[in-house]
Design a protein that fits this description.
This protein has a single domain, classed as Vaccinia Virus protein VP39 (Rossmann fold, 3-Layer(aba) Sandwich), CATH 3.40.50. It is globular. It has 12 helices and 7 strands. The N terminus is likely disordered. The protein is α/β, with parallel strands linked by helices and 308 residues long. Bound molecules: S-adenosylmethionine. S-adenosylmethionine (SAM) binds next to helix 2, helix 6 and strand 2. This is Geranyl diphosphate 2-C-methyltransferase. Its EC number is 2.1.1.255. InterPro entries: Erg6_SMT_methyltransf, GPPMT_Stmyces, SAM-dependent_MTases_sf.
């Protein structure tokens, strides 16, 4: 698979990242086709530097852009008046975010060292590193953001795993991966930026027959009727377009992806949001998540599907 491109084909940001990766020997980027919407999203993530993402990642070098699941360890948090409380709170939020990624990896099925995995919408690469550390295999990530790809490749280089973990700037709806060669692929909170039929057609193309696709995503609940005002607020905040649970299942069925597990993580993510809402790292969107999870208009789902 030849992924090389000339620098004249690259956007300015991607070209900057290419020289950064040349310095680390980390990766080669391919150009982003770039609808105007995708250019907005690339800009959003290029500029994104919220403490809630960076300070949590600094805990152990795994940088996530997703939410957490599981019960809060109150013993680990200790007393809120203690001078070390903020540091402990950040570590606890990060632990819950890593637990979310572990659950996603649990659903990829048996993965061999010579397999290749694809992280569609890989962000700063935390899940990719975890996948390689667990399975010892190759992990390829795609993101619209040159800054994120560069960050992920720098981390892989620092960890000495740059031969196994690569990020590139690329639209996940049209990846350079060969047809039928990928053992498993996933979207971790990145499917709300694209048309689901186009997305699942691309996963179905790259996955081997019998391969596994997993998504963890927020979706609006058809039982509520239509997207609630909270869901609309979340869309505006992240410039995304949250789909319904029904749309996920229908688009999978239309693209040879047969759900093997559908897990409602809504109750499991609420403790994370409650803790985050009390932290100095609030971003202002916490209330919309908590209210929409509680009124039933929004759900946090894991769907694992077999490529048939
Ligand atoms: C909320 S972040 C999730 C990052 C990562 N999956 C994680 O769990 O930390 C959303 C990601 O989706 C990516 N994204 C959105 N639309 C995309 C597209 N069309 N192609 C590739 N990546 C896309 C963004 O660049 C960003 O990295």
């Amino acid at each position: 698979m030849d992924l090389s491109v000339t620098s004249t084909e690259l956007t300015t940001d991607a070209a900057i990242s290419t020289s950064a990766s040349a310095a680390t020997g980390a990766s080669v980027f391919i150009p982003t086709p770039g609808t105007p919407y995708q250019e907005d999203i690339a800009r959003y993530w290029d500029r994104e530097a919220r403490p809630v993402n960076l300070r949590l990642g600094d805990v152990d070098g795994l940088y996530h852009h997703h939410y957490g699941i599981g019960d809060i360890d109150r013993t680990a948090l200790g007393d809120a008046d203690d001078s070390t409380y903020e540091k402990k709170l950040i570590a606890e939020l990060h632990r819950l975010e890593s637990a979310q990624a572990e659950l996603l990896l649990d659903h990829l099925g048996p993965i061999e060292r010579d397999n290749t995995l694809v992280d569609a919408g890989c962000g700063r690469g935390g899940s990719m590193v975890m996948a390689h550390q667990r399975f010892g295999c190759e992990v390829e990530g795609v993101t619209l953001s040159a800054k994120q790809a560069s960050f992920a490749n720098r981390r892989a280089h620092e960890l000495g795993i740059e031969d196994h973990v690569h990020a590139r700037v690329c639209d996940m709806l049209g990846t350079p991966f060969e047809t039928g060669q990928i053992a498993a692929s996933w979207n971790n909170e990145s499917s709300m930026y694209v048309d689901l039929h186009d997305l699942f057609a691309e996963h179905a193309r790259i996955l081997a027959a019998g391969g596994r696709y997993v998504t963890i995503t927020g979706c609006w609940n058809p039982r509520y009727g239509q997207p609630s005002k909270w869901v609309s607020q979340i869309n505006a905040h992240f410039e995304c377009n949250i789909h319904s649970r029904r749309e996920y299942l229908r688009a999978m069925a239309d693209n040879r992806l047969v759900p093997q597990a559908v897990i409602d993580l809504t109750a499991a993510t609420l403790p994370y949001w409650g803790l985050r809402a009390t932290s100095p790292l609030v971003t202002g969107i916490e209330e919309a998540f908590i209210n929409s999870y509680k009124d039933g208009s929004f759900q946090y789902l894991l769907i694992a599907a077999d490529r048939v």
